[in-house]
Amino acid sequence: MKLLADDVLERSSVVVNCCMNRERNLLGTNGYDKELRLNPMDLLKELAATHGNARWLDLCCGTGKALIQAASLVESDDLAITIVGVDLVGQFLPSESKRLQLVQASLTHWSPDENFDLITCVHGLHYIGDKLDLVLRARSWLNPHGILVANLDASNFKIEGATSPRQIVEGLRQADFEFSSQHHLLKCYGRQKQRMPFQYVGADDQAGPNYTGQAVVDSYYRCSTTQAS
Length: 229
What we know:
Layout: H1 6-9, H2 13-16, H3 32-36, H4 40-51, E1 54-59, H5 65-76, E2 81-87, E3 100-104, E4 116-121, H6 131-140, E5 142-151, E6 157-159, H7 166-174, E7 178-180, E8 185-189, E9 198-204, E10 218-223
């Protein structure tokens, strides 16, 4: 099997043509609240009330439809909330909201200038090569009271010489991530900078569908001697 480097993976039709978040709403049967098992706006309102303002970063935001809906609520209620969405393809719906910034960028290289109170990734990790690197970097972008929540299918982790991703899942939990295999959700609280004892090898864009029914990307790792810190 020929594994792909991330710069090649990002040109793959599986990644570029992904329709996972093209028409996803903020709320409802096809909404962020259902997929993340939390209502982003309720949480952001609570955070803004407690801390004076709140910032939300959504990774792999697709067209930004859900974020545009959220920004409309923010402006109509004059809430102290700002929203940033990042997507590789950048096929964003039009928005004139001053509370919303939509950024076309590769998450392999992009990093924000400010920290966030809420970071989400709705089914986007399925199309990322080095998934561990992204979630660890995203955690470092949180405010001390911030929350990161993302959809994650552990079966898309592959470890050289292992038959299951158990070592990676255990490593995430030891690094204070919460992972629900039932709901395919990864969650953590508060900013930390950490490493994990796995070296990224490459990605397979021919992995086929996962639990979502969509074709996704498997991420390959080998165990290293570097310990999480």
